[in-house]
Amino acid sequence: MPIFLVAARLLSNVRRNRIISLLVFAVFCLVAGGIAFAAAEHRSVGTGLYWAVTTATTVGYGDVVPTNTIGRVIAVVVMLTTIPTFGAVFALFAGATVVSHLRRLLGMDKSFPESDYTLAYGDHPVLVRVVSELIGADDPVVLVAPAKPAGLPAHVTHVEGDPTEDAVLRDSHPERANRALIACSDDTDSLLIAVALRAMVPELLVYALVSSPRISRAMREVGVTHTLSSDELVGHTLAKALETPEAGDVLLAMVDSGSYTMRDRVVGSDLADRRLSEARGTAGALVLGVARNGTIDIGIDDDPTLAAGDRLIELVSHRSSTGARRLPD
């Protein structure tokens, strides 16, 4: 089995443009040879092209043959160029067809969503839960990881390979995705993936889960849309739980995607220049805070004034969230 996998990977490197280039070259040689033969033998162009086709296909009826030295030289050139070139075209096409069937038999072909899917990179244990919840919310996901993790939903596309390698990143087609989530067991790997993704698709929204607050800051410096430090999150949550035992349960209830949906709503003219407290009284949902300039103000220490373009972060029941836009988006 490994030898077939290696052969499939090698042959899959044959690109369609190589076949097209060889085919164009072969046709050019055939047409040019036919015209040159017609001129050298004082025949019509149609007769010259007919002779070139019968020669290139090795049919050789013998009804049209070169009668002078120049015609014979042209015939030799046509035979030495068009015959092997057409042979190479057919060989490459047949090889690509075999590789396609072989990859399908070996399960190497991946069925990617049409577009607007979420890319998940890494081997962090939390990814299985995240992917499952996204799938439950009808968000298509492609997972890129060295091995398929246990518990991954069967219909999730899995790209096997080291996501820190450029070739594996390209195979995941980040240009088709609408966002990417990076969560590796090693923060260094997460940073490498983030840098590579920013270089490949600068406009892609990239989010990352890391352990170290230092790596989290580095992520923001390379242009990652949002980072979350698991150490900070767990540390702050535990600290609050010591103050109030139910604090952890409250946070879990807020992010429980089985019951609630988190969404953002752009502040329009109806709420511009009004206080956050006023928006909370008229929103028809639980307003957690306002997002502006990359920060969140929950309105505890002050009551911020809203401006057009700010985003209200709301928590709504699934029953009332039809058409809502989930965060992040």
SS-derived structural category = alpha/beta
At the first level of CATH, what is the class of the largest domain? Alpha Beta
Instruction: Name the CATH architecture of the largest domain.
Output: 3-Layer(aba) Sandwich
Give me the count of strands: 10
Number of domains: 3
Shape: elongated
- The CATH topology of the largest domain turns out to be Rossmann fold
Top keywords for this entry?
Alpha-Beta Plaits, alpha/beta, elongated, Rossmann fold, disordered N terminus, 329 residues, 11 helices, 4-stranded antiparallel sheet, Helix Hairpins, 6-stranded parallel sheet, 10 strands
Description:
Helix 5 (about 125-135) links the parallel strand 1 and strand 2 (about 140-145). This protein has three domains: about 1-105, Orthogonal Bundle (Helix Hairpins); about 120-235, 3-Layer(aba) Sandwich (Rossmann fold); about 260-329, Alpha-Beta Plaits (2-Layer Sandwich). Helices cover about 45% and strands about 15% of the residues. The chain is an alpha/beta fold. It is elongated, with a radius of gyration of 31 Å. The relative contact order is 0.07. A six-stranded parallel β-sheet has the order 3-2-1-4-5-6, with helices on both faces. Residues about 1-15 and about 320-329 have low confidence and may be disordered.
